[in-house]
């Protein structure tokens, strides 16, 4: 990297490959920001990196942005913008609308400062008025420096006028300060070049002070305008004498003459007539003026002058023509004389007739090759081709290299097709080879690629032909195949490559076989592409080749062969046994390829060599493939294969087609798949009946696994097959089997029968034992089978349940009486008595109760509301309060409100209190308590009456009542609490004020619930804090952050929580909602959190920059997570100085992979091994070993290749091509012959 400051270069190790760099500065802040721009192009794409250098504190940070990179741009002159192509392939045209951009910035963005800067930089007219207005505001106010900047940066220099200079000159200079005019000029010089008027105004005071060095410095830096006002060139000599400077007068004269001939004449006169002698050579003056007066009418004189020089001094004529001093002479005549004078280049420059040009071109041994190649660019296409043909016709050996160079350079202009035809017409395949070799990699023309293959083949460059065959995607495959077939090469590899790439394998194999080139077939499958072996085998099979030849060919293949394709090829031709030796050899090698065992299975099946054992025991073959092979041969074997591989759909289809329902049933029972059962038990399945019969008769009875039966039952239930299910359950429950004692199956049989076959229920009840009687009876009753339920209860001597069925469901009191008489049990008689009582058979009910010896139900006949009411009043009036309380606890039908009102009106308040308390009439009870003098109880009742106020909607009255009660001496916690709840529900604006005043006198938990229900979140947080529920307070603030969150309050509370998980929840909460306050929160939690866990939270969300101050604050703890996070952040910010300091002061890092990678890049393999050993990681060590194996193998390959190349002999024959390949090993068309060589090769030979 070159440093302009110290004028020297440095070697700097940069880890990013750069293709272009630049430095820039951004102004507008306290200090100038220095930027380093680096353009990078890599395989994955292109990008532009802009990095800030030496960032200062308090400076705005330069934000790095990644955009969709525009790969190529070009200036678009029409729009004064640029056109480009981005990575997505879109063509973009970008330009600025000069008419609208300034109004947009002023009116929409409201940014006059940006508008001024943009107008100054781009010379936009829209901001002229703004500049004039700002200048007129700043100048009168004495802000001359700012006014000077406005004038200097004004668009199109609208303020850089003589009037502005006069305004600055008119300002009086303050003592000790720089004059405003000098401030103005210094700003102009910093910005760029001065105009003519500014240059003269600044030069005057500088020259008066004698500081010509400063003026020379500005002239060298191109800060001054060089034009002189008016015709004052005669003063140049006078000025130069006065300052003691001797300029280059000849150059000055030439410049002035070109601008103004009259001034030039005046200046020349002053130079010649100088008192001390001429200041410039007279001949030089003449030459300068002659060059300015080339007139057409003087053409004959120019011709005469050139003829004289060509005849007598050709070198002078060559110089004159080279300097282009004349332009009106006779060009054909001069061209003829140049040819005679052996100035062949000048002759070609002046000849226009093609015949004359061709006559001169044949002397290529005299002409300069580079000049000649460039000369062809001045001719037309037809002239160029004619010249090429003439050069090849005259001396092809001498001129071929030049023609190839020129053809390569002008290939796009002339066209490859025409040039190919030209080379072919002269039968020079060497020239065609080198010409096409230089353009084939850039061309997409199929003919170019095909002709290059032809030329390379005919010049013996078979390796080049192979490369094109292998890599090119543009040549015609058919033409390439036919050409190589006809070429009769000793090496058929190009033909093999073409056929392999474009799927001409069958044609290739037949061609090679029919022409006795069997060895190339082996080369193809052994070295080129063993994957094509199945297609290769197809050819010999189609022509009935010898089986031994095919077997040997297969045995010779060492690479991988697609077994399935090979089997398909031989199976189509019924020659499967042909590959048996190859198959057995592969299996003997321990290869467990599925395809191999598929073939083995097929052969065993075809030969009937105990295939059933193989299909059951082998686990490698593909059941689906083998099963399909067996279907037409033996369905039983196909069933075994499908069952082995759980090929459900194929097995169902096979068993249906071959009526193998018994096997299907067994498979379904053992498979235990409800989805498969549902598929086979579909109503539209024509084979369902046969399948069900086999399941019922064979599959389920054979099974010994309860899970099999369970899934089968579920399947029948899901398919809604109750009749079939009953048949199956009868088979395994009622008949001897492994499931005869299964209570669940017995229950299922009864339930299914109850729902589907009610006629069989009674017989099953008689036959089945060991069931849940109550459950079965309940379901029977629900389905209306009352007699069956009665029979079930009677069978199991559950007489009370049987009586319930008779009186509740059968509803027969007579049958119930008979049954009670039969069983004669007290509980039965008691239940019968209740039923008779409900049926108003009072006498029979009393008899039944007597037989049951049950008197508990006597009250049923004695209840009467009026009697109970009067009894309560009588108790009150006789002051029997104890009896009243006892009566209230008993079951009664009294009208207690009426009794209470009667007692209250009679003044019996104690009794009234008992009655009103029993019915919770709090309003009247409060009045009663007042009459009794129990004010506290009255308040309690009033509080309970609050609900009444709320139910009636008297919210204001309720709150006024409670507020009035707060001032009483005996106001207790309940009043404050109820008022808080009322505020929360009906007047939330007063709740917070009330809580702040009386939080210590309320029941906080109760108010917390009310506040939560009323969604009063700030008040809820306040209550949690004062109830020391800090965890709940933090959760409430985070969950209801919009209303309850306050940063200062949150910081005070979070440090008091008991659950440490809230620390990390709060970090996530601040990250989502208050990221700018994260650092402040972390400062509070720094002594309480797990720093490693905290850092991981921000690493997962890629928000480490937000906590940089926190990382710096806790880095002294030297934790690996902290160090790595901070180090990654510094690398991202490219702050290498701080990163280096961090690495030197802290030790805990986990950068093993990075360390090993750097050691690999620097080839410090010992260091890499030491680092891997210290990692104690098997994965790291194995990865390093794999790397060493790769590089050692590559080096061994390079050594072997170089040894083979050095051992190849170099043959020299006269029949070798005229031009060696690439002129010395490279396709360099501008390399001429060297001494002792012919066209760049020793002895004219060709280097292979």
From TrEMBL:
It is found in: Cytoplasmic vesicle membrane; Membrane, Coated pit. Residues 98-121 form the Clathrin heavy chain linker core motif domain. GO terms for biological process: Golgi to endosome transport; intracellular protein transport; receptor-mediated endocytosis. The keyword Repeat applies. The keyword Repeat applies. CHCR repeats lie at residues 249-404, 407-549, 554-693, 700-845, 933-1079. It comes from the Eukaryota. It is a peripheral membrane protein. Its main location: membrane. GO terms for cellular component: actin cortical patch; clathrin coat of coated pit; clathrin coat of trans-Golgi network vesicle; clathrin complex; cytosol. Keywords: Coated pit, Cytoplasmic vesicle, Membrane, Repeat. InterPro entries: ARM-type_fold, CHCR, Clathrin_H-chain/VPS_repeat, Clathrin_H-chain_linker, Clathrin_H-chain_linker_core, Clathrin_H-chain_N, Clathrin_heavy_chain, TPR-like_helical_dom_sf. GO terms for molecular function: clathrin light chain binding; structural molecule activity. Gene3D superfamilies: 1.25.40.30, 1.25.40.730, Tetratricopeptide repeat domain (1.25.40.10). Belongs to the clathrin heavy chain family. PANTHER family: CLATHRIN HEAVY CHAIN, CLATHRIN HEAVY CHAIN RELATED. This is Clathrin heavy chain linker core motif domain-containing protein.
């Amino acid at each position: 990297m070159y440093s302009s400051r110290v004028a020297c270069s440095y070697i700097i190790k940069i880890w990013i490959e750069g293709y272009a760099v630049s430095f820039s500065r951004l102004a507008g802040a306290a200090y100038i920001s220095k930027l380093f721009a680096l353009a990078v192009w890599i395989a994955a794409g292109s990008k532009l990196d802009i990095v800030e250098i030496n960032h200062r504190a308090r400076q705005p940070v330069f934000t790095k942005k990644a955009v969709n990179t525009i790969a190529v741009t070009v200036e678009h002159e029409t729009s004064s913008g640029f056109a480009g192509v981005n990575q997505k392939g879109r063509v973009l045209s970008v330009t600025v609308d000069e008419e609208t951009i300034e109004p947009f910035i002023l009116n929409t963005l409201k940014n006059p400062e940006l508008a001024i800067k943009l107008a100054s930089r781009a010379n936009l007219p829209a901001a002229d008025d703004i500049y004039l207005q700002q200048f007129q505001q700043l100048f009168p106010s004495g802000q001359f420096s700012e006014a000077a900047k406005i004038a200097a940066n004004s668009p199109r220099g609208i303020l850089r006028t003589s009037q502005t200079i006069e305004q600055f000159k008119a300002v009086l200079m303050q003592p000790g300060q720089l004059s405003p005019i000098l401030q103005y000029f210094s700003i102009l010089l910093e910005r760029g070049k001065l105009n003519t008027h500014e240059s003269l105004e600044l030069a005057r005071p500088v020259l008066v002070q004698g500081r010509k060095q400063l003026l020379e410095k500005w002239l060298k830096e191109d800060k001054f305008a060089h034009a002189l006002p008016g015709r004052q060139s005669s003063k140049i000599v006078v000025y130069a004498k006065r300052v003691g400077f001797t300029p280059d007068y000849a150059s000055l004269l030439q410049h002035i003459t070109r601008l103004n001939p009259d001034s030039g004449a005046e200046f020349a006169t002053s130079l010649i007539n100088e008192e001390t002698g001429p200041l410039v050579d007279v001949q030089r003056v003449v030459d300068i003026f002659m060059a300015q007066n080339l007139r057409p009418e003087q053409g004959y004189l120019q011709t005469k002058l050139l003829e004289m020089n060509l005849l007598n001094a050709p070198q002078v004529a060559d110089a004159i023509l080279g300097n282009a001093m004349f332009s009106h002479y006779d060009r054909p005549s001069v061209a003829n004389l140049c040819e005679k004078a052996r100035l062949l280049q000048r002759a070609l420059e002046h000849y226009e007739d093609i015949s004359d040009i061709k006559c001169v071109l044949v002397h290529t041994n005299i002409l300069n090759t580079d000049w000649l190649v460039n000369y062809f660019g001045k001719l037309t296409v037809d002239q160029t081709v004619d010249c090429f043909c003439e050069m090849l016709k005259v001396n092809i050996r001498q001129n071929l290299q030049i023609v190839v160079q020129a053809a390569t350079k002008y290939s796009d202009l002339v066209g490859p097709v025409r040039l190919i035809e030209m080379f072919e017409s002269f039968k020079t395949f060497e020239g065609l080879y080198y010409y096409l070799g230089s353009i084939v990699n850039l061309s997409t023309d199929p003919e170019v690629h095909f002709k290059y293959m032809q030329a390379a083949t005919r010049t013996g460059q078979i390796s080049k032909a192979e490369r094109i065959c292998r890599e090119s995607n543009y040549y015609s495959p058919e033409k390439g195949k036919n050409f190589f077939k006809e070429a009769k090469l000793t090496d058929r590899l190009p033909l093999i490559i073409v056929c392999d790439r474009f799927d001409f394998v069958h044609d290739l194999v037949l061609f090679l076989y029919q022409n006795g080139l069997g060895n190339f077939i082996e080369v193809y499958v052994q070295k080129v592409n063993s994957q094509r072996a199945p297609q290769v085998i197809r050819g010999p099979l189609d022509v009935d080749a010898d089986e031994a030849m095919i077997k040997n060919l297969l045995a010779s293949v060492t690479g991988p062969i697609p077994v399935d394709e090979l089997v398909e090829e031989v199976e189509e031709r019924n020659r499967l046994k042909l590959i048996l030796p190859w198959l057995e050899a592969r299996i003997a090698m321990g290869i467990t390829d599925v395809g191999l065992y598929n073939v083995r299975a097929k052969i065993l099946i075809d030969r009937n060599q105990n295939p059933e054992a193989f299909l059951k025991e082998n686990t490698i073959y593909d059941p689906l493939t083998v099963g399909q092979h067996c279907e037409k041969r033996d369905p039983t074997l196909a069933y075994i294969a499908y069952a082995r591989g759980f090929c459900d759909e194929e097995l169902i289809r096979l068993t249906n087609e071959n009526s193998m329902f018994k096997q299907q049933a067994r498979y379904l029972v053992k498979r235990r798949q409800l989805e498969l059962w549902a598929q086979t038990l579909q109503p539209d399945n024509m084979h369902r009946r046969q399948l069900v019969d086999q399941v019922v008769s064979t599959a389920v009875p054979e099974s010994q696994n309860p899970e099999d039966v369970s899934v089968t039952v579920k399947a029948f239930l899901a398919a809604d097959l109750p009749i079939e299910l009953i048949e199956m359950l009868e088979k395994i429950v009622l008949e001897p089997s492994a499931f005869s004692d299964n209570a669940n199956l017995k229950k299922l049989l009864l339930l299914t029968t109850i729902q589907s076959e009610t006629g069989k229920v009674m017989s099953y009840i008689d036959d089945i034992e060991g069931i849940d009687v109550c459950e079965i009876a309940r379901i029977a009753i629900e389905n209306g089978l009352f007699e069956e339920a009665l029979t079930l209860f009677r069978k199991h001597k559950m007489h009370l349940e049987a009586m319930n069925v008779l009186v509740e469901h059968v509803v027969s009191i007579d049958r119930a009486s008979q049954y009670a008489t039969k069983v004669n049990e007290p509980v039965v008689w008691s239940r019968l008595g209740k039923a008779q009582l409900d049926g108003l058979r009072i006498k029979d009910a009393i008899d039944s109760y007597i037989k049951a010896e049950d008197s508990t139900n006597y009250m049923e006949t004695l209840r009467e509301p009026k009697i109970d009411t009067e009894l309560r009043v009588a108790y009150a009036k006789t002051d029997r309060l104890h009896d009243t309380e006892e009566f209230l606890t008993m079951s009664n039908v009294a009208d207690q409100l009426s009794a209470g009102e009667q007692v209250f009106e009679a003044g019996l308040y104690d009794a009234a209190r008992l009655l009103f308390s029993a019915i919770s009439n709090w309003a009247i009870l409060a009045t009663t308590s007042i009459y009794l003098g129990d004010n506290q109880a009255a308040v309690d009742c009033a509080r309970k009456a609050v609900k009444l106020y709320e139910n009636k909607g008297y919210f204001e009255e309720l709150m006024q009542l409670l507020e009035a009660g707060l001032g009483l001496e005996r106001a207790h916690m309940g009043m404050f609490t109820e008022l808080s709840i009322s505020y929360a529900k009906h007047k939330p604006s007063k709740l917070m004020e009330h809580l702040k005043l009386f939080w210590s006198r309320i029941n906080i938990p109760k108010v917390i619930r009310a506040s939560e229900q009323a969604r009063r979140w700030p008040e809820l947080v306040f209550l949690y804090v004062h109830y020391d529920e800090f965890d709940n307070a933090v959760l409430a603030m985070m969950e209801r952050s919009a209303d309850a969150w306050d940063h200062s309050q949150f910081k005070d509370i979070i440090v008091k929580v008991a659950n440490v998980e809230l620390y990390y929840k709060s970090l996530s909460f601040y990250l989502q909602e208050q990221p700018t306050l994260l650092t402040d929160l972390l400062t509070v939690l720094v002594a309480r959190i797990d720093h490693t866990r905290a850092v991981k939270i921000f690493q997962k969300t890629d928000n480490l920059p937000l906590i940089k101050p926190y990382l710096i604050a806790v880095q002294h703890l030297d934790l690996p997570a902290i160090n790595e996070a901070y180090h990654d952040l510094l690398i991202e910010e490219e702050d290498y100085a701080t990163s280096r300091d961090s690495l030197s002061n802290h030790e805990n890092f986990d950068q093993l992979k990075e360390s090993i990678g750097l050691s690999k890049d620097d080839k410090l393999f010992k260091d890499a091994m030491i680092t891997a050993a210290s990692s104690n990681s098997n994965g790291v060590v194995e990865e390093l070993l794999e790397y060493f194996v790769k590089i050692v193998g590559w080096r061994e390959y390079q050594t072997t290749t170089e040894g083979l190349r050095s051992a190849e002999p170099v043959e020299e024959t006269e029949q070798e091509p005229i031009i060696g390949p690439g002129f010395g090993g490279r396709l360099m068309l501008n390399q001429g012959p060297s001494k002792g060589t012919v066209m760049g090769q020793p002895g004219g030979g060709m280097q292979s």
